[in-house]
Amino acid sequence: MDLSDLLTKKSVIADLKANSKKQAIQEISSKASVITGLSEREIFDTLLQRERLGSTGVGNGVAIPHGKLTRLDRLVGLFARVEKPIEFDSLDGQPVDLIFLLLAPEGAGADHLKALARIARQLRDGTVTEGIRSTADAEEIYGFLTQPLSSSNAA
Most buried residue among 16, 24, 40, 48 by CB atoms closer than 10 A? Predict the structure, then answer.
């Protein structure tokens, strides 16, 4: 699975303004609502429910909030770089500045897990995250997210 299957250039936010985890989730829910045609509230509630199970802040300034929605017909991704890092209850205790939202249909099962693994691999690559953090342009961020990984990181 390639991240270009989940993400479009229009679903990349280069400078998300948020002061808290909840505010960031609210903002990405709003943008995801426009992309999916689903209710912002439904997306927001789904993401908050998932966060209550445990933080999706995976470390190194990265969070991968995700959830399943009954009325969604495909996997949908949205990426946001937060203007100033925010507290996200991450596994490593560090603030988050890179957020990759993944929404999946209720019955996505293995596809949802494969997509999460692919996102995590891409955002574990230091070249990718360094590139994302050093550019101001959403189109360039999209390029870093969708570039092929080197063979040592692709496994």
Answer: 24
Catalytic residue chosen out of the listed positions 21, 31, 66, 81: 66
Structure tokens at 12: 């990349």
- Residue-wise pLDDT for 52-93, tens only, equals 999 999 999 999 999 999 999 999 999 999 999 999 999 999
Alpha helices in the chain (DSSP H): 21-36, 40-53, 110-124, 126-134, 138-146, 151-154
**Structural domain that includes position 47:** 3-148
Is 66 noted as a catalytic residue in this protein? yes
- Could you report the per-residue pLDDT of 101-155, keeping only the tens digit for each? 999 999 888 999 999 999 999 999 999 999 999 998 999 999 999 988 764 444 4
What's the total number of domains in the chain? 1
